[in-house]
Amino acid sequence: MRAPLPPEPERAAEVRRRFVAEARAERPDLAALCLLVGAAGDGALDDAGLDAAQIELDRLAGQLPYRPGGPRAWALALAGLLGDRCGFRGSAADYQRLESSLLHRVLERRRGLPILLSVVWMEVARRAGAPVYGVALPGHFVVGFGPAEEQVLADPFDGGRVLSGSDAETLVAGATGGPLEPGMLRPADPLDVVLRVLNNVRAWAAARPERSDVALWAIELSLALPSHPARLRYEWAQLLVRRGEFLRGAAELEAYAQVVAEVDESAAERVRRQAGAARARLN
């Protein structure tokens, strides 16, 4: 099945404007941002579809029991509803599909990457009043319930299975080879969650050079976030050149070189030479 195609330029520009506004709001809405990521990647998602996805999250939240108890009770209630009754979970094959990073498609397919399934868990639980947040373990995103001293972790990719301390340690060891550090269990900032979603999209596109259109919108949205890695601008400039936008790519390379020059003039000069090579390709 062919991966979704981005929208036409006018719709794409509108989606970016709305994404920027939401990302810079005082309290960014995680569901809205993830759905706008979906709209940037799937031209078939219109405003009615965006609304329908929010309504589905509301509908699922309405099926949870009223305040079931402490953190563990909340985790089990979410697992019973989303994992057991609704069938939300993931598999190795989901890493090969762009749809696994698009929230509206995850809600439709009930399959996705760990971080998108975690977004479903968080947004449904939040609507029901649960003390829920994302936990960005290295290599595997999960959800947490309750304060640090009572924290309960659940893995939506595994149907919401409640994790023991040793389970979390095993996940971290498998990803990094190192131990689980207390800082890894802190609640993830919503904008960091969105950047990680976009990083997954970029990784999918990097393995498929013919889908540079996907890499382009993913980088553009990443750059629209208030905080992002500076090197993303270099990656964006290189992508523009590869796509044949030589003048625009050269201008971005030169802008990046100005930033780099403050810390490494020799690296800046190498980037300037790349900008010159890009312009030369117009001749």
UniProtKB/TrEMBL annotation:
Name by which UniProt lists this protein: Transglutaminase-like domain-containing protein
Lineage of the organism: Bacteria, Bacillati, Actinomycetota, Actinomycetes, Kitasatosporales
Source domain of life: Bacteria
Species of the source: Streptomyces heilongjiangensis
InterPro entries: SirB1_N
Pfam families documented for this protein: TPR_9 (PF13371), Transglut_core2 (PF13369)
Domain Protein SirB1 N-terminal: 54-199
Family statement: Belongs to the UPF0162 family.
